[in-house]
Amino acid sequence: MFTLALIQMQVVPGDSSANLSKATHLTAEAARNGADIILLPEVLDVGWTDPSAQSKATPIPDGETCRCLSESARKHSVYICAGMAERSDTLVYNAAVLINPEGEVILHHRKINELDIAHPYYAQGDRLFVCHTALGTIGIMICADGFARNLVISRSLGYMGADIILSPCSWAVSADHNNTATPYGKLWIDSYMPVAREFKLWITAVSNVGWITSGPWQGSKCIGCSLVMDPDGTTVAKGPYGVDAETILYVPVEPVPRPARGCEWNDLWKKVKSNTE
User: Fold this and answer.
1) Range of the domain at 33
2) Per-residue confidence of the chain (277 residues) as pLDDT tens digits?
3) 18, 74, 122, 146: least buried by Cβ within 10 Å?
4) How many folded domains does the chain comprise?
């Protein structure tokens, strides 16, 4: 068992210095409180679909954002998973990394199921990975990857052996959204639950908070509601809602032993046989 910390932090659009300073401060706090893995939001350096990504995106692993987070992981001896704008030659990606306690990038994901409005800002990822750690096998997806058609991305990570999926997110609603009348989160619960149950894995997602001040969603608000779902498909933790709802959630996570996972051969054979009779 290990402790996961979800840092539901405020992201200031376009202000990478302020955002990195806050991320490192909150990471230190989470580490002091016993976190083993720390999960940070999507594009935490400049904010999702902020036009500044085109000029402020930095390389992985040698750019400022990744180096700063690597130093934090090494200093506090924790794993850090975080989303960031990545520069690779002439392209910019909506990317995320997992950094080990030695400060090394051991997993690198580029968002695949990006929304249409974000295509002018980010190139599309084209592959998936998992990595084996002392805490279990970990996969990464980013936000809308989680509701790709037929849940193909999260299911693929399940087939690849993930015990836990970490998902940096940026969950936004319109400025006039009424959370009492229409509680936020059903889309994510409905997307995560079948995969968590099918593969007996954990799915964890953290969203930032704060106003979106530029780009195609200008005037919308990011509202947190970060989510942790266990292998039974039960929501075991949920962050507060609101543009000011900055917080750290601490969740004990116990991966399901591998022999209890997946599809039994007898069940698979029955399905094949029934389809050929």
Assistant:
1) 2-276
2) 999 999 999 999 999 999 999 999 999 999 999 999 999 999 999 999 999 999 999 999 999 999 999 999 999 999 999 999 999 999 999 999 999 999 999 999 999 999 999 999 999 999 999 999 999 999 999 999 999 999 999 999 999 999 999 999 999 999 999 999 999 999 999 999 999 999 999 999 999 999 999 999 999 999 999 999 999 999 999 999 999 999 999 999 999 876 555 444 444 444 444 544 4
3) 18
4) 1
3-class SS at 69? Answer: helix
CB 236 within 8 A of CB 6: no
CA distance 116 to 111: 13
CATH code for the domain of 268: 3.60.110.10
**What are the residues whose beta carbons fall under 8 Å from the beta carbon of 210, sequence distance 6 or more?**
10, 11, 12, 13, 47, 221, 222, 243
Ordered alpha helix ranges (H), the chain: 16-32, 53-56, 64-76, 152-159, 186-199, 265-276
The model carries a pTM of: 0.93
Give the C-alpha separation, 268 to 260, whole Å: 15
